[in-house]
Amino acid sequence: REYGGLLANRSFGGAQVSRTFYARGQTGQQLLLGAYGALNRQIAAGTVTLFNRRDVLDTVLVEGKARGIIARNLVTGEIERHGAHAVVMASGGYGNVFYLSTNAMGSNVTPVWSAYRKGAMMANPSFTQIHPTCIPVHGDFQSKLTLMSESLRNDGRIWVPAYKKDVERLRKGEIKPSEIAESDRDYYLERRYPAFGNLVPRDVASRAAKERCDAGYGVGRTGVAVYLDFADSIKRKGRDTIEALYGNLFDMYRQIVAEDPYETPMMIYPAVHYTMGGLWVDYELMTTVSGLYAIGECNFSDHGANRLGASALMQGLADGYFILPSTISRYLADEIHTPRIDTSSSEFTLAAEAVGDRLKKLLNTKGTQSVENFHRRLGKIMWEYCGMSRSEEGLAKALELLAALKEEYRTDMRVPGGLDEFNPELEKAWRVADFIELGELMVRDALQRRESCGGHFREEYQTPEGEALRNDDEFAFVALWESLMGSDQPAMHKEPLEFLDIKLSQRSYK
Ligand SMILES: Cc1cc2nc3c(=O)[nH]c(=O)nc-3n(C[C@H](O)[C@H](O)[C@H](O)COP(=O)(O)OP(=O)(O)OC[C@H]3O[C@@H](n4cnc5c(N)ncnc54)[C@H](O)[C@@H]3O)c2cc1C
After folding, report:
1. CA-CA distance, 268 to 173, in Å (whole number)?
2. Is the ipTM of this complex over 0.95?
């Protein structure tokens, strides 16, 4: 809070005014604690039953309506059936399709994918947000990336050396960044976007960092990093002020990188952070399957091809606290005469058997390569060809590579352990199988969108200054993908975007 007791706010990427509420780099955590508190209150009141340590593996439809799920008990391996009058998916984003991301290690696409296979359509699956402010990849054996809060761009200045001779000397450890004169630094965001400077939106900042590193100006041991420098702010505002604002983030950085950001600039590089695509929902948050709702990051709504900072939690809270309670009540009102869902019905039995069969098939593959190895390779393909920049040629190549990877996974993957026990490798095996299929859909989606917009940057469609070039005449639509039974090729439908009260326009950050 501010000194006077009002909620503190500051600027975020893509905004030139301070209008984003925050809690010192812990906003998400604080909101989560609030949501946990509200949930626990309902559990204590007996209105909610919590099933911990379960993996949702399938969605069950009865007469075209979502009537429950099939879950695996992660401790005993038991396959469970849960029936309900309606189903709400809230399983989060699928950024881990890239293997390395800022997402939690357990984040996955499986519940969403099960709904997709049962007829719920996926919207704009290739729209991914790459966050510019993450700790760079440091080696092949890394399985996670760490986000440094976007708030740091309020006071940190992003730069790389302006001359290659300094890049070389930095990489060899012959000089420190602080020894490079101001005139020999390239504050490339301030140079390219004088109006927004270091606070351009995430997609713009990420691409600009990639451009500098691809051109050979990247810093750090790998050459795939840029500096985020607080020296000016510390001089201007004093160390105490900076510490009060970002002290916890600086500590985190110091613990991970073993460098002191009060003394030397942070090194950062973009990383996969959020997926704007997901299950298509209407304004009531219902998917294309009756009675199946999707809320939070797992749906596609609200953000389009780009998401501005802080709006994910805004959406999650709006969906869960305000919208769904009203809209699902409307649906349930018509179900008042539907008796308790019978989980011994043929639909549940078939679904449970199919889950059991698929788990056995994964275990019986008995190949030679670990699931982790496949996941890492999948991530490399996605990052290289469907990441920060995409091209017709690269995407076509990715489709071939993914088809080959899928076949190899089917025949040469190995899951240790058994079925009826705690087996995290088996959990991963199911998830990675779904991720590979999702990867194919993302690539198809990116391939058909022959324009650049937000986080979707097609190399063929850019302005002479290297900015995203939209094609509103042909691509002002949401791409909806439908899984077709018995076919590898999904069908694409278009939902036109109609702007009635505001004119579709292009923002300039210059
Ligand atoms: C490091 C980081 C920092 C962020 N900071 C901000 C921020 O400051 N402001 C902001 O607006 N947004 C932020 N975001 C984005 C925001 O936190 C997420 O978009 C948001 O938390 C998504 O909420 P959710 O409830 O939809 O999904 P999640 O929070 O991902 O929750 C999904 C839940 O579903 C569970 N689940 C998944 N699969 C299964 C399965 N098969 N079976 C059973 N359970 C399953 C998961 O374990 C998880 O508990 C941040 C994201 C990250 C990763």
Report:
1. 18
2. yes
Q: Look at 22-36, 245-259, 331-345 and tell me which has the smallest mean pLDDT.
A: 22-36
CA atoms within 13 A on the CB side of 504: 12
- DSSP summary character for residue 471: -
CATH of domain 9-131+274-333: 3.50.50.60
8 Å CB contact between 202 and 151: no
Q: Is 118 exposed, middle or buried (0-12, 13-18, 19+ CB in 10 A)?
A: middle
CATH number of 132-273: 3.90.700.10
Atom of ligand 1 nearest to the CA of 91: 34
Q: Would the pLDDT of 24 be above 80?
A: no
pLDDT per residue as tens digits for the range 209-265: 999 999 999 999 899 999 999 999 999 999 999 999 899 999 999 999 999 999 999
CA 93 / ligand 1 centre spacing (Å): 7
Residue ranges per structural domain of the chain: 9-131+274-333, 132-273
As a whole number of angstroms, the distance between CA 338 and CA 328 comes to 15
Distances in whole angstroms, Cα of residue 202 to Cα of each of 23, 254, 298, 325, 494: 20, 24, 20, 32, 27
Q: For ligand 1, atom 11, which residue shows the shortest CA distance?
A: 310
